[in-house]
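Worked example (supplementary).
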Amino acid sequence: MDGNYMDIMIKVGMADLNTAIYPNALTTLGLGSCVGVVLYDPVKKIGGMAHVMLPDSTKIRNNENKAKFADTAIDLLLSNMLKLGASKERLIAKMAGGAQMFVLKTELDFMNVGKRNVEASKQKLKELSIPLKAEDTGLNYGRTIEFYTENGELVIKAVGRSITVI
Amino acid sequence: MDDYSIGDIQYDVLKEVGNIGAGNAATALAQLLQTKVDMSVPKVELLDIENISSILGGEELIVAGIYLTLDGDINGSVMFLLNKDSAHKLVNQLMGLTGDTGEEFTEMEFSALQEIGNIISGAYLASLSALTNLKIQQSIPYLCIDMAGAILDVPAVEFGTQGDKALFIQTRFGDQESMEGYFFLIPDLKSYDKILKSLGF
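After joint prediction of all chains, the assembly is encoded as:
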């Protein structure tokens, strides 16, 4: 490839998902209680990212937007990646986010939506037999993530913290 | 009401609710700071959930968010958002400090910000309560300084469990020194009905 090509950073919005093939990359900004789940085929260098907002589509009446829920978002992301030629057997997953921005005194554990998003995403990955290779989840701060299809690195940026790569 | 489908009249009513609440809150803020505080005509906006995180001008903008939950006749929450510079200015003015503002907030500044949020929200809610005759209890103020996108996940999730739209009553505060703050009233669906009904709509 010549030096003129530009790799594109594809932005994934809240309750949305997208895929990218090398040299393109994926990013989502300011994850709070939302979870960024990424899938990666290291051979084909195909990556996918979902910005999950809620854990469970079956508990919500208005659930048309599949990308919004952990269960349906990961299914849809997987199917989009398979269409691009990724192999399910090779896929690995990483995730970041699921923070609790305001730790409310009256809040019970089951109300912590960030934690529930992380658990639901893990559950879904387990069902699909996709191994979770790394995660940076929980705590009480926001995260911006960038996912590189070249090597499957997930870069995590947060306010006042050094950059982490998982 | 199944979703946040509202007509022109409801829009105007909610705008007026926002106006009166914010007027009271601006007065409280002006007294606290002993300065003049301007406020904008409130915006009532029905937003797609995916756009919530960028309403303040970018997901990665660092803001101070003060969040209180509501209980009683009205359920939901209120959120007061300030960009980081404004938060520093506000605290300095309140505490009579001048000069260089550090990057980080000290514990004292943190606590002062919470109190500012408490007073502003209290004034806003008191007028809403008087107007509608509804009882509203507010929680203690919770403060978080982080990326706007991450903080706005909180209202986004609350609306997200009900649909793909969020209804915000938004008011901008500011003073001569271009300090900007946004106040959001985020009642749940039933509470919207109650507010409108109590006002005869």
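Two points are worth noting when inspecting this output. The first strand of chain A starts at residue 9 and ends at 11. DSSP finds two helices and ten strands in chain A.
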